[in-house]
DNA sequence: ATGCATGAGTG
DNA sequence: ACTCATGCATA
């Protein structure tokens, strides 16, 4: 080995050439070794339509938590809570989707419903650290409420869910395995390709530029999830 | 359970 | 044009 004019589009083919041997070291995760810029610098909470978590838990919870916030931000504690949460949720015979909808009925300020996806991700720790911390007190509140009501109350026959119908469903793009492998190889050497490079990659893989751009964005987010971030 | 997507907020 | 929280659609 002893050649690599990998500038610009030359590196646009980490799979079909021997350059992969040097450019895409397979194995575990990508080798991006950056880590500064903590999370806290952002405004932390935003929201839009459905969900609406207002602020980080800086005053609620127990007085103990207020004394040492580290208890709430400790990945270990979050992990333990997530597991307990799931276990007790199942014990209550409630689905992830049920929990999401029930959150709206909690009437907590700035807290609306969440999707099954989000509840699932909370339980499996596949959310960012900050996201986990923001959701914990809310889910904890729901859990306590639900268990309290389970003691003296019983379910009431709520209205059967009716699908609105008539709405054109969104179609989910599916990236084929070979293309996916190429993208992963590119990502390994350059997690944040420029717009031009994205265009070139899209061209090469015969995918829409936007699809490729979003793929990289999602890939970056993945790296930051608790499960992937080696912070526990 | 997870892939691809949206939109608010930020720069 | 990115990050981040979140969700629809689907495996």
Automatic annotation (TrEMBL):
<keyword id="KW-0804">Transcription</keyword>
<dbReference type="GO" id="GO:0048666">
    <property type="term" value="P:neuron development"/>
</dbReference>
<feature type="domain" description="POU-specific">
    <location>
        <begin position="70"/>
        <end position="147"/>
    </location>
</feature>
<dbReference type="GO" id="GO:0000978">
    <property type="term" value="F:RNA polymerase II cis-regulatory region sequence-specific DNA binding"/>
</dbReference>
<dbReference type="InterPro" id="IPR017970">
    <property type="entry name" value="Homeobox_CS"/>
</dbReference>
<keyword id="KW-0805">Transcription regulation</keyword>
<keyword id="KW-0371">Homeobox</keyword>
<dbReference type="InterPro" id="IPR050255">
    <property type="entry name" value="POU_domain_TF"/>
</dbReference>
<keyword id="KW-0539">Nucleus</keyword>
<feature type="domain" description="Homeobox">
    <location>
        <begin position="166"/>
        <end position="226"/>
    </location>
</feature>
<dbReference type="InterPro" id="IPR001356">
    <property type="entry name" value="HD"/>
</dbReference>
<keyword id="KW-0716">Sensory transduction</keyword>
<dbReference type="InterPro" id="IPR013847">
    <property type="entry name" value="POU"/>
</dbReference>
<dbReference type="GO" id="GO:0045944">
    <property type="term" value="P:positive regulation of transcription by RNA polymerase II"/>
</dbReference>
<keyword id="KW-0552">Olfaction</keyword>
<dbReference type="InterPro" id="IPR000327">
    <property type="entry name" value="POU_dom"/>
</dbReference>
<dbReference type="Pfam" id="PF00046">
    <property type="entry name" value="Homeodomain"/>
</dbReference>
<dbReference type="InterPro" id="IPR010982">
    <property type="entry name" value="Lambda_DNA-bd_dom_sf"/>
</dbReference>
<feature type="DNA-binding region" description="Homeobox">
    <location>
        <begin position="168"/>
        <end position="227"/>
    </location>
</feature>
<dbReference type="GO" id="GO:0005634">
    <property type="term" value="C:nucleus"/>
</dbReference>
<dbReference type="Pfam" id="PF00157">
    <property type="entry name" value="Pou"/>
</dbReference>
<dbReference type="InterPro" id="IPR009057">
    <property type="entry name" value="Homeodomain-like_sf"/>
</dbReference>
<comment type="similarity">
    <text>Belongs to the POU transcription factor family. Class-4 subfamily.</text>
</comment>
<feature type="region of interest" description="Disordered">
    <location>
        <begin position="1"/>
        <end position="37"/>
    </location>
</feature>
<feature type="compositionally biased region" description="Low complexity">
    <location>
        <begin position="9"/>
        <end position="23"/>
    </location>
</feature>
<feature type="region of interest" description="Disordered">
    <location>
        <begin position="150"/>
        <end position="176"/>
    </location>
</feature>
<keyword id="KW-0238">DNA-binding</keyword>
<dbReference type="GO" id="GO:0007608">
    <property type="term" value="P:sensory perception of smell"/>
</dbReference>
<protein>
    <recommendedName>
        <fullName>POU domain protein</fullName>
    </recommendedName>
</protein>
<dbReference type="GO" id="GO:0000981">
    <property type="term" value="F:DNA-binding transcription factor activity, RNA polymerase II-specific"/>
</dbReference>
């Amino acid at each position: 080995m002893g050649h690599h004019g990998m500038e610009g589009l030359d590196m646009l083919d980490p799979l079909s050439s021997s350059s992969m041997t040097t450019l895409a070291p397979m194995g575990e995760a990508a080798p991006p070794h950056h880590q500064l810029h903590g999370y806290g610098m952002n405004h932390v909470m935003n929201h839009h339509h459905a969900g609406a978590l207002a602020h980080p838990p800086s005053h609620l919870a127990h007085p103990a938590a207020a004394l040492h916030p580290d208890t709430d931000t400790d990945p270990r504690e979050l992990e333990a809570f997530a597991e307990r949460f799931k276990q007790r949720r199942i014990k209550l015979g409630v689905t992830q989707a049920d929990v999401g909808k029930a959150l709206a009925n909690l009437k907590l300020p700035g807290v609306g419903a969440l999707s099954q996806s989000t509840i699932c991700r909370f339980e499996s720790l596949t959310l960012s650290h900050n996201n986990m911390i923001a959701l914990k007190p809310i889910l904890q509140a729901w859990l306590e409420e639900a268990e309290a009501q389970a003691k003296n109350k019983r379910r009431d026959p709520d209205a059967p869910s009716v699908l609105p119908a008539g709405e054109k469903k969104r179609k989910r793009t599916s990236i084929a395995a070979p293309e996916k492998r190429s993208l992963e190889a590119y990502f390994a050497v350059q997690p944040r390709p420029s717009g031009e490079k994205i265009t070139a990659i899209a061209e090469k893989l015969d995918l829409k530029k936007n699809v490729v751009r979003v793929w990289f964005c999602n890939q970056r987010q993945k790296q930051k999830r608790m499960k992937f971030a080696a912070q526990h």
